[in-house]
């Protein structure tokens, strides 16, 4: 594969983004440059299959992502999960992304290691790597799973960054980036208790949250 094909990898960062915060954004840019990928799409889920419904609408979560990424041309917001009814299964999104980009382009699903550890609870999880690679961001306190089916599955597919960009799918790459201990749960708690979330989210997101009175009850 040529250098230009390798640099053309598409990274897709899935999550609830309730709300998107600087931990997501800084990790995304560091990962994009580490791989490297030519673009990264944030893909908010509509109805997360593995957790409580978010309370804030998917459209509002997507609107906050749009505000957060304005001015960064390598980032975009992919709303395909908002257009589908029912639970947002990642495998369905990967299927549709593949139809859009074809079979040859490297497609890299990005997640935090906390999400990676629960991968074996995802719908049709063993098919994911037929469609994409996985790049996982090590978060503070994270440990590689030691035993079980998931541990063996991940270990047998462990790859270095250049291997992810050199082929379309099939590898797992775990990388430690600048650790930023920010979580959306903490932001929601701060706001619910009347405290400020300023400087944990981009200013435009902070303003949106206040204008729409989000997370106050
Ligand atoms: P919550 O606290 O509601 O679980 P979250 O902050 O973990 O939310 P999600 O929307 O669930 O955010 O996360 C989307 C993805 O981003 C997940 O794979 C998660 O592991 C990852 N992620 C979240 N926060 C960080 C962070 N500070 N650094 C790196 N990755 C993160």
From TrEMBL:
EC number annotated for this UniProt entry: 2.7.7.18
EC top class named in words: transferase
Keyword Transferase: yes
Pfam annotation, one family: CTP_transf_like
GO biological-process terms attached to the record: NAD+ biosynthetic process
Highest taxon of the lineage: Bacteria
One annotated GO molecular function: ATP binding
Domain named Cytidyltransferase-like: residues: 12-189
Family per record: Belongs to the NadD family.
Stated name of the protein: Probable nicotinate-nucleotide adenylyltransferase
Organism: Chromatocurvus halotolerans
């Amino acid at each position: 594969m040529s250098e230009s094909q390798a640099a053309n990898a598409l990274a897709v960062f899935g999550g609830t983004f309730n709300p998107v915060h600087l931990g997501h954004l800084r990790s995304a840019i560091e990962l994009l440059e580490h791989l490297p990928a030519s673009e990264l799409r944030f893909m908010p889920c509509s109805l997360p299959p593995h957790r409580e419904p978010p309370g804030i609408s998917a459209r509002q979560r997507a609107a906050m992502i749009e505000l957060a990424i304005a001015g960064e041309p390598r980032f975009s917001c992919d709303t395909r999960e908002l257009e589908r009814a029912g639970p947002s299964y990642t495998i369905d999104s990967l299927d549709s992304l593949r139809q859009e980009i074809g079979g040859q382009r490297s497609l890299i699903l990005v997640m935090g290691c906390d999400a990676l550890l629960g991968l074996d609870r995802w719908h049709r999880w063993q098919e994911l790597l037929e469609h994409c690679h996985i790049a996982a961001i090590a978060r503070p306190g994270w440990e590689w799973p030691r035993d079980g089916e998931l541990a063996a599955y991940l270990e047998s597919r462990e790859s270095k960054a250049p291997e992810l960009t050199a082929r379309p799918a099939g590898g797992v790459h775990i990388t430690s980036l600048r650790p930023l201990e920010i979580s959306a749960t903490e932001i929601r708690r701060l706001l619910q208790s009347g405290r400020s979330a300023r400087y944990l989210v981009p200013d435009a997101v902070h303003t949106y949250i206040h204008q729409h009175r989000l997370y106050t009850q």
